[in-house]
Design goal:
The complex is a heterodimer. By secondary structure, chain A is an all-alpha fold. Chain A has helices at 3-9, 14-31, 33-45, 47-59, 66-96, 101-128. The longest helix of chain A is centred in the middle third of the chain and has 31 residues, at 66-96. Chain B has one domain: Up-down Bundle (3 helical TM bundles of succinate and fumarate reductases), CATH 1.20.1300.10. In chain B, helix 1 (17-43) crosses helix 3 (60-88) and helix 3 (60-88) packs antiparallel against helix 4 (92-118). The longest helix of chain B is centred in the middle third of the chain and has 29 residues, at 60-88.
Amino acid sequence: MRLVDAITGYRYPVMAIVSILHRASGVIMFVLMPFIIWMFDASVSSEISYGQFTSVFAAGVGFLPGWFFKLIALALIWSYLQHFIAGLRHLWMDATHAVDLQFGRQSAFFSIVASLVLTLALGIKLFFF
Amino acid sequence: MEQNFGSKRTVVGAHYGLRDWLSQRITAAVMALFTIVLLLQVLFGAEMGYDRWAGIFSSQWMKVLTFVVIVSLLVHAWVGMRDVWMDYVRPVGARLLFQVVTIVWLVGCAGWAIQVLWRL
């Protein structure tokens, strides 16, 4: 089967989508790990570095505007939330063997909706307050 | 014929499957706990600023917990990324290269994070 058929031809159940999102969000956080540690470094090291940390998001750095960094932060926020909630779902299923179809479908759907709602709320806080 | 299924199954292979699966779950639980502990400290307290933020990480128990989380993240991300490479990268040479880069990337990041933590 060609890749394009797999992408367009398959009907993906919501559990499969959550599975892919779990991987995608994990890879995003893996790739952005130096940015996360830079944020940790700058925000805790000194009052001066804390000021630089906040100014990167408020005013940007070099030719990159502040909203660009906020957008990256928002991608990280979504990735963390999706990975966290889907991960709790995994742990719950492992611990209780709750593997029936209905629970799988509902909890998968819940993880997507909950992480999107929380991302939206935190995004509003990040960009407008 | 001798029974070779269920609890009597003759286990073969390198035996790292269960260990990796388990370490990924345990490290996940540690990081989830850290998330909740940090969140509680951020949400309940005075207005956020440098002093309060840095103060959260300055207590000894929080430093130890953060250290454990950094090491947990290293292990957790290694198992996850190795699974990704094993699933999507077929050529052995390319897979090995990606795995080596992943190890260097993760160890480098963990070293940086621990360095930040220990000079606080």
